Amino acid sequence: HGDCPLSRLLRHLLTARRSLDICLFAFSSPQLGRAVRLLHRRGVRVRIVTDAQYMGLQGSQIGLLRQAGIQVRHDQESGYMHHKFAVVDGRMLITGSLNWTTQAIQNNRENVLVTEDVEYVQPFLDEFERIWEKYNPINYKFF
Amino acid sequence: HGDCPLSRLLRHLLTARRSLDICLFAFSSPQLGRAVRLLHRRGVRVRIVTDAQYMGLQGSQIGLLRQAGIQVRHDQESGYMHHKFAVVDGRMLITGSLNWTTQAIQNNRENVLVTEDVEYVQPFLDEFERIWEKYNPINYKFF
């Protein structure tokens, strides 16, 4: 119905006008994938950081997002890139335990915290810029 | 060293004087397990909610915590109890992507948000009380 967690999340994302920075361990929800591609087509600058191990799994949206022309970077470490957050227009932080998967949205007990409080948003913005640069393919080490 | 993520987390936890409510998908860190048992011995009221599937895995601290006399409840659903938060003295919320595992602390890229802002703390307190009651063994359905 109109106020399920997925609808709330979609409503927040679809307020994006300029930028959407997404940092997600797992992204396989088709509805959220469609929303992100829609924002990209509207001219919003979308950037995605994800986990290298998870991105290749069946059902991952990452391939479709890349095909749509969206920039995606991934970790190159043995540990997980385990964040689950997004920042809309550098202004609104969406963070919590929720991966963007249908399993998590429908079956799990999860939390999502949404805030425009700069004190909380800024460290996540800083972390995004830090790992966006760290995972730049130019910096890949082959091992 | 003194200000690694584990030290910061321990420092926050060890401020508990009256209560510690923990809601964690995975809890296997021996250091954090010791800290929680220490608080229990000091007379802090510790309550733990965890995930039924994960709690039996090798390395889980849940057995040791129960042996120490700490109350633990778990979900009885097919989905995951995927929260990763704690509330200290009903006052300080510690939440984020981090499960309390050595793997996550040492190898993953994670976030932990710490706040005493009632606006953010209260919904997590409410969620804790809700699932603490929901997972009361009295309410078990056998299936």
Automatic annotation (TrEMBL), chains A, B:
SMART domains to which the protein is assigned, alphabetical: PLDc
Gene3D superfamilies: Endonuclease Chain A (3.30.870.10)
Gene Ontology BP terms: lipid catabolic process; meiotic cell cycle; piRNA processing
Gene Ontology, cellular component aspect: mitochondrion
Reaction(s) the record says it catalyses: a cardiolipin + H2O = a 1,2-diacyl-sn-glycero-3-phospho-(1'-sn-glycerol) + a 1,2-diacyl-sn-glycero-3-phosphate + H(+)
Domain PLD phosphodiesterase: 77-104
Keywords on record: Hydrolase, Lipid degradation, Lipid metabolism, Meiosis
GO molecular function: RNA endonuclease activity producing 5'-phosphomonoesters, hydrolytic mechanism
UniProt KW Chloroplast keyword: no
UniProt keyword annotation of Lipid metabolism present: yes
Coiled-coil annotated spans: none
InterPro entries given in the database record: PLD-like_dom (IPR025202), PLD_domain (IPR051406), PLipase_D/transphosphatidylase (IPR001736)
Pfam families per the UniProt record, alphabetical: PLDc_2 (PF13091)
Annotated family: Belongs to the phospholipase D family. MitoPLD/Zucchini subfamily.
Protein's name according to its UniProt entry: Mitochondrial cardiolipin hydrolase
Protein's gene: Pld6
